[in-house]
């Protein structure tokens, strides 16, 4: 099955505050370049770019105002039977985790990488320590998330028609009624979200050799 990798890269990076994150540099390369290198093996790569940005030699689509809108444009343009949607904000692509994900997508049609919750997890009650949530029953969701393209396209079209907004694509597919398999991710595939994450990413970039 042909695999299209879809890279939403159109965010404004407001929590870091240094412009669109895809073009920030760690280890001498932009976050977008890290992702492109990590998926160089794919049959097709499509990138959603922020307004006003161009990158020569790439298949691109315009980014939307939300991640969901950017991914809608990406899925519409994809040609592979399987699509992997991956945040460019997660620059470190760990190949064994990708292989595990692809195996699950081929078997089930929809899967996402997840990692365990490493800390005690608690509900906040007006600034106070509320009930503790059983962390062994919870996972943190990473990307890539993989789907048969037709399934994800159906989910995106129906969510748009219903005016429903989700923070990731696995929610969309689950909302459509299709189960999503959980696959062991890798903590190195963390999302660069806050300024201090750039320091962590810089450190990891120095020892990265895959
Ligand atoms: N309108 C948007 C918003 C986000 N993204 C992408 O979705 C991924 C996850 O988003 P996030 O980490 O929230 O990135 P930003 O939106 O850039 O960050 P912030 O929320 O701090 O502005 C990123 O690769 C980002 O580029 C996108 O393609 N289009
Ligand atoms: C898709 C995602 O990375 C899964 O954890 C996450 O939902 C993106 O969240 P963000 O707030 O758009 O960074």
Automatic annotation (TrEMBL):
Record has Cell membrane as a keyword: no
Name the residues annotated as site: Transition state stabilizer: 15, 21
What biological processes does GO assign it?
Answer: isopentenyl diphosphate biosynthetic process, methylerythritol 4-phosphate pathway
Q: Pathway, according to UniProt?
A: Isoprenoid biosynthesis; isopentenyl diphosphate biosynthesis via DXP pathway; isopentenyl diphosphate from 1-deoxy-D-xylulose 5-phosphate: step 2/6
Q: Which Pfam families match?
A: IspD
For this protein, the Enzyme Commission number is: 2.7.7.60
Q: Which GO terms describe its molecular function?
A: 2-C-methyl-D-erythritol 4-phosphate cytidylyltransferase activity
By its UniProt entry, which InterPro entries does this protein fall under? IspD (IPR001228), IspD/TarI (IPR034683), IspD/TarI_cytidylyltransf_bact (IPR050088), ISPD_synthase_CS (IPR018294), Nucleotide-diphossugar_trans (IPR029044)
CDD domains per the UniProt record, alphabetical: CDP-ME_synthetase
UniProt keyword list: Isoprene biosynthesis, Nucleotidyltransferase, Transferase
* Reaction catalyzed: 2-C-methyl-D-erythritol 4-phosphate + CTP + H(+) = 4-CDP-2-C-methyl-D-erythritol + diphosphate
Annotated site location: Positions MEP for the nucleophilic attack: 135, 191
Q: What does this protein do?
A: Catalyzes the formation of 4-diphosphocytidyl-2-C-methyl-D-erythritol from CTP and 2-C-methyl-D-erythritol 4-phosphate (MEP).
Q: Which family does it belong to?
A: Belongs to the IspD/TarI cytidylyltransferase family. IspD subfamily.
The protein's name: 2-C-methyl-D-erythritol 4-phosphate cytidylyltransferase
Lineage at the top is: Bacteria, Thermotogati, Deinococcota, Deinococci, Thermales
């Amino acid at each position: 099955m042909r695999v299209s990798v879809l890279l939403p890269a159109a965010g404004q990076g407001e929590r870091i505050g240094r412009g669109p994150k895809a073009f920030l540099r760690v280890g001498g390369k932009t976050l977008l370049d890290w992702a492109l290198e990590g998926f160089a093996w794919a049959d097709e790569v499509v990138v959603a770019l922020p307004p006003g940005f161009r990158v020569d030699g790439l298949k691109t689509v315009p980014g939307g105002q939300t991640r969901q809108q950017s991914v809608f444009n990406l899925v519409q343009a994809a040609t592979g039977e399987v699509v992997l949607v991956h945040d460019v904000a997660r620059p470190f692509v760990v190949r064994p985790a990708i292989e595990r994900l692809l195996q699950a997508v081929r078997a089930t049609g929809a899967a996402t990488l997840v990692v365990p919750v490493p800390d005690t997890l608690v509900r906040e009650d007006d600034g106070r320590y509320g009930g503790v949530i059983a962390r062994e029953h919870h996972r943190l969701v990473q990307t890539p998330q993989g789907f048969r393209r037709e399934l994800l396209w159906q989910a995106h079209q129906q969510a748009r028609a219903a005016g429903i907004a989700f923070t990731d694509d696995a929610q969309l597919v689950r909302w459509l009624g299709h189960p999503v398999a959980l696959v062991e991710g890798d903590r190195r595939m963390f999302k660069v979200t806050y300024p201090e994450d750039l320091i962590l990413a810089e450190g990891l970039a120095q020892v990265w050799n895959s």
